[in-house]
Amino acid sequence: MQEEIRDIQTRAGAMETFIVHPDRGGPHPVVIMQMDAPGIREELYDMARRLCSVGYYVLLPNLYYRAGKDTKYGPDVLEKGSAEQQRMRAVRTKMTIPPVMEDIADMLAFVATQPAAKPGPVGTHGYCMSGPYALAAAARYPDRIVAAASFYGTWLVSDAEESPHLNLGKAKGELYIGCAEHDELAPLPMVEELKGLFQKSGNRGELELYPAVHHGFAFPQRWCYDKPAAERHWERLIALYRRNLG
Description:
Layout: E1 2-10, E2 13-21, E3 28-34, H1 42-53, E4 57-61, H2 83-92, H3 97-111, E5 117-127, H4 131-140, E6 145-151, H5 164-167, E7 174-182, H6 188-201, E8 206-214, H7 227-245
Parallel strand pairs: 3-4, 3-5, 5-6, 6-7, 7-8
Antiparallel strand pairs: 1-2, 2-4
């Protein structure tokens, strides 16, 4: 596979992005993978590589780039009250959906210039804070984003502008929402409310609850990593992209 870290020019500046794609048989369908709150790290690079290994051109942008280059955090970013967590949260709490939608548009423009990237439909998925971004992108760009997935997305029903629950019916592509049974950032009453709204939207996708697991279950380096659930997440995600991107 071919991989690089490069700056993609957006209307807000230079967005550092990890790009990986197969070195044969291109051009390849494009997938935009969106990070969780702790930010860019080798664990996420490995997950992007796994998607590449089954035939996709994958972009993994540092969505914190507006706050500068110093927005990668040490392993104690997950420790409550740690200096790294406080530093991350100072950036994370300023994140909103509309600027990320601009970033998605700029990435769509970028891939149109890349020979290894297949023109046409694109997929996107997000973890944690980026679950809402992935679903919002499918609603904002329905003619380009034909598949979108959220895994333990946070506050999927909220007062935020472009909150996913407001726009489920605007997405033409297939949506997949995977929720953890134990998740204080997406409690079960919220999941049930979202499930009802999803069913009313008419979208051909699904909302699936992963029983007995916690927020973050798909990340191999988390205390809550659950291999069976993580492998199910991969099966669901790759099948979603196969159906819609090839």
